[in-house]
Amino acid sequence: MSPATAPAAETEEHRALRAAVAALGQRYGRDYHARITEEGGRPAELWADAAKLGYLGVNLPEEYGGGGGGIAELSIVLEELGAAGCPLLMMVVSPAICGTVISRFGTPAQKRAWLPGLADGSRMMAFGITEPDAGSNSHRITTTARREGSDWVLTGRKVFVSGVDIADATLIVGRTEDARTGRLKPCLFIVDRDAPGFSRSPIDMELRAAEKQFELVLDEVRLPAGALVGADDSGGDQAEAPDTGLLQLFAGLNPERIMTAAFAVGIGRHALARAVEYARTRQVWAEPIGAHQAIAHPLAAAHIELELARLMMQKAARLYDAGDDAAAGEAANMAKYAAAEACVKAVDQAVHTLGGNGLTREYGLASLVTASRVARIAPVSREMILNFVSHQTLGLPKSY
Fold first, then answer.
1. 24 or 240: which carries more pLDDT confidence?
2. Which of 208, 262, 296, 353 could disulfide-link to 75, CB 3.0 to 4.6 Å?
3. Are residues 95 and 104 in contact, defined by beta-carbon separation less than 8 angstroms?
């Protein structure tokens, strides 16, 4: 990345990280990503190389083998891989959500068991929150946990859980009864992939992606006390804290939104770069088509919107890494919304710039038309973000 295109708000270390990750991405690129997707494989080689270079655990504590950075650094890694055409979706889940939750709230035993593997890429975690009848509304989640002696018994269903087939465990969001109030409150459990009663089935997605989506069934899954995030071996500490589970949940959801923004900005940059290259060289009349304002102006507008979205993403990451969870929540939602909209517009304009060529395999843009919509839908829809901003920021009344 040239100094002219590097974000001015970033440090020298951040710019060096961008350049290094961009170099890695260029060694793989869109052709690699398209090939493994077509073959039904997964980006194991890219994951391994990113891990070897320390990029996957750049946000995790140094004492557990991580880079000691934050979501600001991890979002740079994902954005640059996306800009190269080979984003690693599981980065959003494994180091960003699960790694963050465990590093902030896990017990010493949970940290020792998971953080080194998440940092060096040798272990992976999935994240299960969405349910068939509740979506990601934590207040309507029906997956519940009850105590039986020193164990927990978990029952429920989850849908649209990414990468369960390749994850060593899944961080499941459930609800359990508060001993003092009797009300159900959120709680997070680490469920090993081979736990009895824990089953998965693939969801038939028309969108082709290397990372598969699954429906999970938890049928009386018996877990040891230490599976509850933040609990001691008796399971008592977290269970008696009234708001710990909710804090854990939002500690994971804010990085998820920031990383989704990074994913979207990266894809948008990739599509825009392909379109600019084409417009600069494609000649139908006396001048390349990029000389015509009908082509040049929409591409310039797409670039501006991507840059604005990236600035909001950087703000959200800085707030989160500084420990300002409330302000980070607002900024993370705004960043995710802005990046998704900018990404969709950039991809659409890129395809339109190439015309018929934009729908060919040679240029690799057609598949991004569908992929770019993912950021509008997941992990939370743009409408729910607008609800959040209208209620939390503007103070308008709720309609639900």
1. 24
2. 262
3. no
